[in-house]
Design a protein that fits this description.
single chain; 156 residues; alpha+beta; Lipocalin; 2 domains; eight-stranded antiparallel beta barrel; globular
Length: 156
């Protein structure tokens, strides 16, 4: 009675061990990262068109999109209606897809207190189109670039 049970446990253990070994090698390859003589690719020049100050509409919060070592993000830098939200990071983990000229990342909804997946397109220097995805629904909103002169007028 102990013979068949003991024998049947050997096969799954052997499969598990080989799966872990192969999985471990696969993980090691990714964990090793770039070699010292390799450089990480920098963002293409047209990817930087997302940098700057953006506003959805008159009186809405102003978001500054910045680049930092972990990627790009957007932070509320001014809000007439809700000054308590200044400093909140609303665009996170933005990564540029050169093939589609689209940004992908996450947006934090202050009103709903949750993150959603987003895609961003910058069709011209003064407009940003953000599409938010929640389950099977999506919503597109537009932002306009705030010029340096307007920023000075707002006294940021």
């Amino acid at each position: 009675m102990s013979g068949p049970i003991h024998k049947s446990k050997k096969v799954p253990i052997a499969l598990l061990a080989s799966w872990l070994l192969l999985g471990g090698l696969h993980t090691t390859a990714y964990a090793s990262g770039p070699q010292p003589d390799e450089t990480e690719p920098s963002a293409p020049a047209n990817a930087d068109n997302i940098l700057g100050h953006w506003q959805r509409g008159e009186g809405e919060a102003i978001i500054e999109v910045r680049q930092h070592p972990g990627g790009y993000h957007g932070v509320v830098v001014a809000s007439e209606r809700r000054p308590e939200i200044v400093g909140i990071e609303v665009f996170r983990q933005l990564r540029y897809d050169e093939d589609t000229s689209t940004w992908h990342g996450r947006a934090y909804s202050i009103k709903r207190k949750r993150e959603v997946r987003i895609d961003i397109v910058v069709p011209n220097a003064n407009r940003l189109e953000l599409t938010a995805h929640v389950l099977i629904f999506s919503r597109r909103v537009q932002f306009n670039r705030i010029s340096a002169a307007n920023l000075a007028r707002l006294q940021l």
